[in-house]
Each structure stands twice: as C-alpha cells, then as structure tokens.
Predict the structure.
Amino acid sequence: MTKVLFVCLGNICRSPTAEIVFRHRVQAAGLSHLVRADSAGTGDYHIGELPDSRAREAALKRGYDMSNLRARQVQPEDFEEFHHILAMDRTNLAILKRRCPPAYSHKLGLFMDYSRNYSEREVPDPYFGGPGGFDIVLDMVEDATLGLLAKLRNE
Ligand code: 4NP
C-alpha cells in the first residue's frame, strides 16, 4: 500500500480537491487496493470543517463529491505513515520541512512537480479570490494527478 498525503494551509480548498481528484483517478485505474490518499492542512483554522462551498461546487460540476471530507491538521505521525507528502505551494512545503523529522524529509515535495502541462510549481490559493480560482485549482490538480499516478505505477 502506497499512501499519499496532500497538504495546503487550511485543508478546505486545494488539498481536499487534490485528494478527491486523485482518489477518483486511482479508483478508475483499479488501484484502490494499492494506493490510498488523504489530505491535511498546516494550519489549524478550519479543523473539522467541510471543504469550502466554492470548492465543493466547482468539484461537483466535474463529478467529484467532496461532502464526506473534513479538514484536519498535519500530525507528527503523518510523516511516518505516508510515503509521499505533497505540498500545494512552497510556503506549506517550507512549514512541512520544519516539522518533519530528518529521516522522513525525502517524502516531502511539491505536488505540481508531477504536472506535465503547467510550468507553475504552486497551486494558487483560491480562498480570497473569485470562483474562477477553484476551476484553475481543479485544472492544475487534474494535470498533476496524471503525472503522479504514472510515477506510482512505475513504483
Ligand atoms: P487552502 O485555502 O489552503 O487551499 O485550504 C485556504 C483556506 C483558508 C485560508 C487560507 C487558504 N484562511 O486564511 O483561512
């Protein structure tokens, strides 16, 4: 079993979107028994909350139902449990690097490093922007998911 953790700041916009999209692709590929996904935030502002309603709406339009997800914060045990811990931006990657025991630092990376069609290495935070930002997040996440899945198939 390979376990992937997606990480953003609040765990209500970008990382739960990555979790649901990646899980859908894993299921479609028939790999659910081999690959597990979860998401968490570096911050504690939204613990226990549903994903942002704008994120849920944009995702549902593409067939992703996020209504079962609840925000949680990254825990010390996550660094041991997960094999790939992928941040949505450099700020959250830097926070993870500070909290991660050195023995597990090789697990940390940027999710967008798996993207094939975007040169951007960060998924922009849509929280303070308009609804269009959530579609950009979905576009970028769908693209990086394909690259990540291809890498995991090779493992
Ligand atoms: P996320 O978006 O990190 O993609 O979940 C944000 C959610 C909440 C806040 C910032 C970003 N906030 O400042 O509360």
The chain has a mean pLDDT of 97. The helical segments are 14-28, 53-61, 78-81, 90-99, 132-154. The radius of gyration is 14 Å. The beta strands are 2-8, 35-41, 84-87, 108-110.
